[in-house]
Amino acid sequence: MTTRDTARSQSASQAAQAPHAASVAGTVGATSANATAADDDIEILDIARKEDTDERRGRRWFKRFSGRPFPGWLYAFLFILFDLAAVATLQWGVSLKSTRVKLSSPTVGWGFVTKMWTDGNFVLVLNALLLGLIYLILLMLTNRFWIATPVFLAAAIIVAVIEHFKVQIRYEAVLPSDLNFLKADKSNLLSFMPPGAHWTIIGACAVFVGVLIVCFLLYRMDGRSGRLLRFDNVGLNVTVRLLLILLPGMFFTLYSMQVSTVGSWAKTFATVMGDKPSMWDSVYDAQRNGPLVSFTRQLNPRIMEKPANYSEATMKKLAAKYAKEATTINESRSANMTDSTVIYVLSESFSDPSRVPGLKVNKDSMPNIRKIKSGTTSGLMLSSGYGGGTANLEYMGLTGMSMANFDSSLSSPYQQLVPSEHWVPTINQMWGAAKFSEAFHPYESSMYSRATNYVKFGFSHFYTLTGDGEGNDIIKYQDKIDESPYVSDEATYKSALEEIAKTDDNQFIQIITMQNHMPYNDWYKDNDFTAESTDPSQPLEKDETKSIETYQKGASLTDEATAAFLEELDKLDKPVTVVFYGDHLPGIYETASADTNNSLALHLTDYFIWSNKASGSSQGEKIDNSAYSSPNFFVAQAAEHMDAKVSPYLAFLTEMHEKISAMEPPVVNTIQGWDRIPEGQNIYLDSDGNPMAESDFDDETKQLLADYKLIQYDITAGKNYLKDSGFMDLP
């Protein structure tokens, strides 16, 4: 081969290799590009795997529990926990502090729990039991623990907020009568929201959101999703659920219907568990015993037994009978009661210490009132209380009805009866429009639910320390004496006198004082009153002595203030009649009260009916049969004292008082509580103050007493047949 051929051959070989090299280069480039793309896919896949792993880890965290249904013991534990949370929530609703002087210290907050082992009081358990019944019913209705629980707690939060608002505005707990308000006046609910209410609502909503979050997390953890009953047999499932709805429902209903009835299993059960009714203050009652226990106790009070012959025909006949009696009485009377201003003065705890058995005092605490009594209608009043029970005496005085006629379960008409009554005839209504009726009480208007009751009674103003909650009806003078925590009687009289003097209208005025309210803790400076036992072998204890001597000084200050008040009324150029009475003795006579033979003496206070100079012939009048009385007869006695004409109702009371001078339910020598009226026989006194037995009554007295029960039943528990009969109308 020649050199030229060799060169040509190499050139051809190189030319042939060039496309191959390009192909190889292309392949290498493509491989490199594919490798880069693959790396990107792997990175994305790793991220996706990481996210999937995280999600699966989260699922596994729940599945640790969701794979295992919650055991029964855990549901039971959670049930108790949420039930107690509801109790605590309701307790918060009524735990607002008051600025008033406390009569006692309610056990609120943690103390509501600790009193189980400090006092053996298990009212917390009673509240938890009652709420637990409601909770159980909700659980069985839904069969879903994590649905029923937030609903149950939401209801507790809503009720607690409502309680909180009502306590803030009116210092009063939610009562059964508020349900009637919801029906009649729901459009005005927003007007009862206190300032700053939105913050409370926001806080409550935040708490509920927290509840929802907890329930949702537990729901996710619960392998059975809160399903409580999982029987394969549908019929068995339905049967068990129905039983667990009906049985708790029946227990709760029967308990609520009977807990206010003395002697019932429910009342006994509640008492054993620690329920201690405190009816004078609904907030204190709810704080002390729990809102639900307090509420249920007032749902169905037994008012009085229905007379066997009660009917419309019977009541028409009775109304006609006493209309005829009224006509007979009015033939010899010339005045009209409403042509005068009548003032009722309920003097807190006022009585004569010198009448207390076994007590020796160094001087008279009531010389002025003793002198007043000697020259006008006066005597001793039989009280149903000792150391308490003010509102019951007040109720009897304003209505003419007697606690002796009520069932023993009805311990406080102001709380248990008046709020639900459709017709509440009170003596102030004889003066017509509400503008002619005013009341004064230098304390909180919420006590004994007076704020709402006095509106129902027809009073235009009820002047108190707290007023109507909107800055109105604040009692003007609030002076106190030395270290006493209460407004003086002098200041209270001054507030009333200004209102009485500034109008020429005749009015009905109610005054309820506070100066001599318990406790009696050496309030006064320069107190020279002393007290000691008449029996040297049984000396008074130091605390008893201090209380009695403090009380004596307070009574003497009342004596002076009352005399000065009457002097000012005497200067008015319009007729005024005053009915003054002490509601009960102070519960400080421990030595005397230890002897049951002193029961009657410890239930007799002082009263008088007095008229000013402008009343003319009524001044200095002293009617017959005034030595003994009870508040239900005061209005009839005042009419007789004033020579005033009467309605059929007052005619009846006049006749009743002629046969029975005073009447009250059984009395005991312990401070009046609100569990019940004491057991035993009613007390009836004759005109000489001697006890009378019902078995010894003559036929006329028995008939009058039967008529009394018919009248009282018709007004308080019956069908109000007397309402439109003219029975209450003055001629």
TrEMBL record:
Record pathway: Cell wall biogenesis; lipoteichoic acid biosynthesis
Note the Gene3D superfamilies from the entry.
Answer: Alkaline Phosphatase, subunit A
Q: What is its main location?
A: membrane
Instruction: State the superkingdom.
Output: Bacteria
- Low complexity composition bias: which ranges? 8-23
One Pfam family matching this protein: Sulfatase
**UniProt keywords, alphabetically:** Cell membrane, Membrane, Transmembrane, Transmembrane helix
What is the membrane topology listed in the Swiss-Prot or TrEMBL record? Multi-pass membrane protein
From the record, give the transmembrane residue ranges: 73-94, 120-138, 145-162, 197-219, 240-257
- Positions of the UniProt region annotated as Disordered: 1-23
Query: Matching InterPro entries, A to Z?
Result: Alkaline_phosphatase_core_sf, OpgB/LTA_synthase_biosynth, Sulfatase_N
Q: Where in the cell is it found?
A: Cell membrane
Q: Where is the Sulfatase N-terminal domain?
A: 341-643
Name of the protein? LTA synthase family protein
Which organism does this record belong to? Bifidobacterium amazonense
